[in-house]
Design a protein that fits this description.
By secondary structure, the chain is α/β, with parallel strands linked by helices. It contains 16 helices and 13 strands. This is Amidase.
Length: 478
């Protein structure tokens, strides 16, 4: 075959191409994994995106995958592909450290729901991706493993909390990485590193974030999701299919195989939302939105400027419901968390106090959840007229490292710039982040918000936007 490269080039291939080649025996999983191991050895010392990499285990798993191909057995969507797992997800035999020194030896006895599903889909796990302590910042640094670097710029964040995942994918260490998102932790890292990230509808993919015997906070149950990060929309589709292939009774909210809602009257109508009053988008962000809108119009989409103030309310409401629940573990954070997490939390609570007071009570909390249901209904109705909303991935360009803790004032600006990253999880709808280009040496991008259980519509629109950008990664660290 003329298009099969030497082993050291497999790390450049798209996941979709690798999956097809492995499935038909054109290349071996072992060759593919070996190529990615070499890439990790070359760039991970500079980026610190992956921790606890065990090449021998990965190569042994790849050999099993190759034996299955040779035996002609039925293969899963992710068969033989190297994939990174986030350090806040249980992977049997590995520490679920969540970036906390005190949890460094918390070895998982069994896979979490989503890790088990990826394994059943054929994934070969190659390294654990770094995150901030407690996975609660848009910056990937902690006292246990140190700082993860953005391959585009060491001075800027790779995003968080799935920042190790985004840096690893963008630099070619793995073609696919798993992340989770309760406040932009898939979408923002994808944006920061110039790749694609999908936050599915709540209930679309089975997942779990806490070990057996621990109760999940209500906000985690109804807002958090797991999802894929990859270098292209097609690769995200592949990973999404692999994560959707199986169910697990441990997830009480999983709606396996839930069908998309009936097509609206105008399925190609897009609402362009620039601002909800939290923070005006920068010139670069506005240009990214204009670029995406132009590409969608050229492909036959109708794009109208809209206002959607309910998302501003949802953004503020997140800081009541999620942060009041997080307050329960703040004594633990104060005891074992790192200084970065403590300072970031101070900025979050400072903003929350502006809206909800210093000590919201039970009635505030109950009324907040009641209001959440109303906002979900209102957004669902709005999306009947505009089934896709085009909006910023952040109101600012990629943040400088530690922007959230450089000062309380700057931390509050970061919170305001990320309004969309809280509003969407609070309501449980799907969203996709896709690159639009490069400005000032950093990737630019936009987000697409869609109807619940209608991931396909935003993936289709993302493909259109991506077609004008091209695939920006993998890149060497700069």
């Amino acid at each position: 075959m003329t298009d099969v490269p030497t082993t050291d080039e497999f790390w450049r291939w798209p996941a979709t191409k690798l999956a097809r080649a492995i499935a038909v025996g054109e290349v071996s999983s072992r060759e593919v994994v070996a190529s990615h191991v070499e890439r990790i050895e070359a760039v991970n010392p500079k980026l610190n995106a992956l921790v606890d990499v065990r090449p021998d285990e990965a190569l042994a798993a790849a050999k099993v995958a190759d034996d299955m191909v040779a035996a002609g057995v039925e293969l899963g969507p992710l068969h033989g592909l190297p994939i990174a797992v986030k350090i806040n997800s249980d992977q049997a035999g590995y520490a679920t450290s969540n970036g906390v020194v005190a949890f460094a030896d918390e070895i998982a006895e069994k896979d979490s729901v989503h890790v088990g599903i990826m394994r059943r889909s054929g994934a070969v796990f190659l390294g654990r991706s770094n995150s901030p302590a407690f996975s609660y910042r848009w910056f990937a640094t902690n006292d246990l493993y140190g700082r993860t670097i953005n391959p585009w710029s060491a001075a800027h964040t790779p995003g968080g909390s799935s920042g190790g995942a985004s840096s690893a994918v963008a630099s070619g260490m793995v073609p696919l990485a798993q992340g989770n998102d309760i406040g932009g932790s898939i979408r923002y890292p994808a944006h920061a590193c110039g790749i694609v990230g999908l936050r599915p509808s709540v209930g679309r993919l089975a997942h779990s974030l806490y070990p057996p015997g621990q109760d999940q906070a209500l906000s985690t149950q109804v807002m958090a999701v797991d999802g894929p990060l990859a270098r292209s929309v097609d690769d995200v589709r592949l990973f999404y299919a692999g994560m959707a292939a199986f169910t697990d009774p441990r997830d009480p909210f999983h709606a396996h195989g839930a069908s998309a809602p009936a097509l609206p009257k105008n399925p190609r109508r897009v609402g362009l939302l620039r601002d909800v009053g939290a923070k005006a988008p920068s010139a670069v962000v506005n240009q990214s939105l204009d670029t995406a809108a132009e590409r969608l119009r050229a492909a036959g989409y109708e794009v109208d400027e809209i206002e959607l103030p309910l998302l501003e309310e949802a953004w503020r409401l997140w800081y009541l419901l999620a942060m009041e629940e997080f307050r329960v573990i703040m004594p633990l954070v104060e005891q074992i968390g790192d200084e970065g997490m403590k300072k970031a939390a101070a900025a979050y609570y400072s903003c929350a106090a502006d809206w909800w007071g210093e000590a919201p009570g039970l009635v505030d909390y109950m009324n907040g959840y009641a209001r959440r249901g109303t906002l979900i209904s209102e957004l669902g109705q709005f999306l009947q007229d505009y089934p896709i909303v085009l909006l910023p991935a952040s109101a600012e360009e990629v943040f400088e490292q530690d922007a959230d803790i450089s000062s309380l004032e700057r931390g509050r600006e970061v919170v305001a710039a990320q309004w969309m990253n809280m509003a969407i999880p609070l309501l449980g709808f799907p969203a996709l982040t896709v690159p639009t280009g490069v400005a000032n040496g950093l990737p630019t991008g936009v987000s697409l918000l869609g109807r619940r259980f209608d991931e396909e519509s935003i993936l289709d629109a993302g493909t259109v936007i991506e077609s004008g950008t091209g695939i920006l990664t993998p890149i060497d660290p700069r």
